[in-house]
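Thread: "does anyone have the structure for this chain?"

Original post by V.I.:
We have the sequence but no experimental structure in hand. Need at least a predicted one for the grant figures.
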Amino acid sequence: MYTLKRTNSTDLDFQILVNQLDQYLAIVNGDKNDFFVQYNKIDLIKYVLVAYEGNDAVGCGAMKEFAENTMEIKRMYVPLEKRGKGIAKSILNELQKWAQEMGYKKCILETGDKMQDAIGLYQKSDFNRIPNYGPYSNNETSICFEKEI
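Reply from O.Q.:
Generated one for you, tokens below.
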């Protein structure tokens, strides 16, 4: 059984998971990862979810305002050994619910073309692929999605 905690970017468990995520992305993306680092800083993120199995943090996700009616989902991560158990889907669903509670109408996100697990999750969760937005507009390795909530 997993529980989700709403928190912010000062949460130590979130920071530990994000560090693991950054290490994972550096391996998966190689040299191209340097481009993304500048857009993944967590100090300005106010809305964070951490998933727990008992007392162990087993996943995270976050969001920040992108536009007046749009939240951008960021920093989604579940360690490899915990994947396939529905943790990421629970986090993603709760982030959308939270955004909707705050009056947002849409969620957008960016992931890399090598992140097949993430792409599958977003497609199964009814996110639609869109043209790359903002800082990802001219990045050929980015894949962007959106969903009306």
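V.I.: this helps a lot. Residues 8 and 48 are 5 Å apart (CA to CA).
O.Q.: and The mean pLDDT is 91.
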